[in-house]
Amino acid sequence: MSTHPKVFRNARLVLADEVRDGSLSVDTDGLIAAVDTPTGADGHDCEGDFLLPGLVELHTDHLETHYAPRPKVRWNPVASVQAHDAQIACAGITTVFDALRVGMDEDADLRCDDMRALAEAIETGKQEDRLRADHFIHLRCEVSAPDVIDAFRMFQEDRNVRLVSLMDHTPGQRQFVSLDAYKVYYQGKKGFSDEQMAAFIRKRQELADGLAPGNRKTLSAAARKNGIAIASHDDATIDHVAEAIDLKTRIAEFPTTIEAAKASHDADMAVLMGAPNVVRGGSHSGNVSARELAEAGYLDVLSSDYIPASLVQAAFQLAGEVEAITLPEAVAMVTATPASAIGLHDRGTLTPGLRADLVQVKLVGNVPIVRGVWREGKRVA
Q1: Structurally, how many domains does the chain consist of?
Q2: Model pLDDT for residues 91-119, shown as the tens digit of each residue
Q3: 261 touches 288 (CB < 8 A)
Q4: CB 24 within 8 A of CB 37
Q5: Domain span including residue 103
Q6: I want to staple 327 with a disulfide (CB 3.0 to 4.6 A). Which of 96, 108, 319, 338 is the partner?
Q7: Residue 80 · residue 121 · CB < 8 Å
Q8: For 174, phi and psi rounded to 5 degrees?
Q9: Does 43 map to a domain?
Q10: Is residue 249 in a domain?
């Protein structure tokens, strides 16, 4: 970094409550020094583009596609993390929670040892200064899986774990309330006959009945003990939300109904939905749309989920298409609110004293272009 403050001039600054033409300066510690700094011709010319806080991503499954690009193919873990990180950074994401699965079904292509290898690769990337974004770990815990507790213990000393989500993909509830939709998904994926599919469903339901309630309590207690934030997943009913409240849940990931989203929002949980849901105009699995929640005032956080570039696109799309949502409010869903929900209070807004995690964005038509990304004042993309 330069020994003098860095200046970003001729920018449309997306602040907490307004968009303002101006400049921003960064000090030698990588913190925002001032906003609306009077400047001359020196500094980085943003050419009238938007300048946003760096995006904060709480749930991305994208790392696995770099590690296992084809069935039975495994890539070098460190190289996989680097490739994932490059795509994350170029999407404007400066803080990312990489989602790793804990608790595997018998048909899973990846195992818990693979997840541990990726976790170690993330730490290697951080120690060796290989990464552009700031990486943390989000453990996606499948509470109905027989090995979920043992697998969770493989991560109990990992300081990068900052978020745990309690998932249950048992057929007949939550994401898969419709057994017909579940059959379409799995029979297409696995090529099961009707008889094999029926047996598969019975086994999953029996496992969930015996394991899920106890595992959910054990995992949440361990997370609370270690100061790890808890997220619910695919809540569909008021009872699901009540259970999440009892477990001290901070974040409601992907509620599948407007009733569950409202109850979670009213309980001061941050309601998280997928940015691809916004961009596509609805849920790919037939559940409630993110836009419907946004219009009702129940949407707090967006996640790129499986498409990193969707995060910035969804923010601009919501601001452009939902009358009640301003650009600062939409940008907060991908910056300030997720940062606050997870306890990262040193980033998320263009405020003096906070980290100079910055994204320069040019809006062309309805698809934004990320033209520059800085993490703590240092250009990373």
Answers
A1: 1
A2: 999 999 999 999 877 666 788 899 999 99
A3: yes
A4: yes
A5: 55-346
A6: 319
A7: yes
A8: 50, -120
A9: no
A10: yes
Residue type, 150: D
The backbone torsions φ and ψ at residue 49, rounded to the nearest 5 degrees and listed phi first, read: -75, 165
Looking up residue 329, the CATH number of its domain turns out to be 3.20.20.140
- Any domain includes 44: no
**C-alpha closest to that of 307 among 95, 41, 62, 59:** 62
Q: Hey, which residues does 60 pair with through a beta bridge?
A: 98, 305
Per-residue tokens: 186:
């799995």
The pLDDT of residue 172 is 55
Q: For the chain, where are the alpha helices, taking DSSP H only? A: 63-67, 77-90, 112-127, 148-153, 179-190, 194-225, 238-246, 258-266, 275-280, 290-296, 310-321, 327-332, 336-341
Tens digits of residue pLDDT in 311-342:
999 999 999 999 999 999 999 999 999 999 99
For the chain, first and last CA: distance in Å? 15
DSSP labels for 133-190? Answer: SEEEEEEEEETTSTTHHHHHHTTTT-TTEEEEEEE---TTSGGG--HHHHHHHHHHHH
Q: What does the block give as tokens for 61?
A: 């499954």
Please choose, from the candidates 185, 174, 87, 169, the residue with its C-alpha nearest in 3D space to the C-alpha of residue 131.
Answer: 87
Amino acid at 317: Q
Contact by Cβ (8 Å): 138, 162: yes
Residue 67 to residue 62: CA distance in whole angstroms: 9
The angle at the Cα of 60, spanning 264 to 298, to the nearest 5 degrees, equals: 25
Structural Rg of the chain based on CA atoms: 21
Q: How many angstroms from the chain centroid is the CA of residue 168?
A: 18
What is the structure's pLDDT at 288? 87
Count CA within 13 A, CB hemisphere, residue 224.
Answer: 11
Task: Read off φ and ψ for residue 7, nearest 5 degrees.
Answer: -115, 135
Residues of the chain with pLDDT under 70: 1-5, 39-41, 106-108, 169-191, 208-210, 282, 284-286
Distance CA 31, CA 351 (A): 9
Indicate the helix (H) or strand (E) that contains 349: none
Going by DSSP bridges, is the β-strand pair 19-26/270-274 parallel, antiparallel, or unpaired?
A: unpaired
The token pair that represents 161 in the structure block: 């774990």
In this prediction the pTM is 0.91
